[in-house]
Design goal:
The complex is a heterodimer of chains A (119) and B (114). Chain A is mainly beta and 119 residues long. Chain A has no helices and 11 strands. In chain A, a hairpin with a 2-residue loop joins strand 7 (67-73) and strand 8 (76-81). In chain B, strand 7 and strand 8 (62-65) form a beta hairpin. Chain B is mostly beta strands. The chains are: A mainly beta (119), B mainly beta (114).
Chain lengths: 119, 114
């Protein structure tokens, strides 16, 4: 099946630094990728939709200057948390939709997630 | 807007027990409905889906039926195994064609004991 990887799986950084998280579709091309944030014992909250070759679409309440998204190729999207603060600590998950997939089913393939801890 | 409410966990069952995880939703029109499973240390995997009313999704012994009249998509399995221990998420997308955004429930942690 379709595989999505994320790197790193876990990162600890100091407050004020920036952290980049990569999301790769390993065996398919993805024009659209999604970034989610998951708080403990809570649901996944969609942060933004990443479109290859164009600007990302952010959900209401998500700061685009804080969470920079780049989708430079059909297999890679990156999320950069700029000037990270302890409240940014969370589990970040990406997903990708197969470009050749059936839109009607809206199936997304998920990465394993990245645990960010900001000290 | 769209929302999904699912049974709070954690749920602990003995092996071979019957499983039901309730899920109800709020959406206009006819969304697509999904159950995702997240095994420890792994990403979410699509378990099953249903795209229209009265459809039944099934996979690995799990079933869920799209009930428009009760706006529900309850997950069931007749005999659970230890390997079914995971977190289960109910989700919906749409209802408009091409609307890819997924709205998730809070997840239900299931633990099966031998």
């Amino acid at each position: 099946g379709a595989v999505v990887s994320q790197h790193p799986s876990r990162v600890i950084c100091k407050s004020g630094t920036s952290v980049k998280i990569e999301c790769r579709s390993l065996d398919f091309q993805a024009t659209t990728m999604f970034w989610y944030r998951q708080f403990p014992k809570q649901s996944l909250m969609l942060m933004a939709t990443s479109n290859e070759g164009s600007k990302a679409t952010y959900e209401q309440g998500v700061e685009k200057d804080k969470f920079l998204i780049n989708h430079a190729s059909l297999t890679l999207s990156t999320l950069t948390v700029t000037s990270a603060h302890p409240e940014d600590s969370s589990f970040y998950i990406c997903s990708a939709r197969d470009t050749e997939g059936i839109i009607l089913y809206n199936e997304q393939f998920f990465g394993p997630g990245t645990r960010l801890t900001v000290l | 807007g769209n929302s999904v409410t699912q049974m709070e966990g954690p749920v602990t069952l003995s092996e071979e027990a019957f499983l039901t995880i309730n899920c109800t939703y709020t959406a206009t029109g006819y969304p697509s409905l999904f159950w995702y499973v997240q095994y420890p240390g792994e990403g979410l995997q699509l378990l099953l889906k249903a795209t229209k009313a009265d459809d039944k999704g099934s996979n690995k012994g799990f079933e869920a039926t799209y009930r428009k009249e009760t706006t529900s998509f309850h997950l069931e399995k007749g005999s659970v195994q230890v390997s079914d221990s995971a977190v289960y998420f109910c989700a919906l997308s749409g209802p408009n064609f091409g609307n890819e955004k997924l709205t998730f429930g809070t997840g239900t942690r299931l633990t099966i004991i031998p």
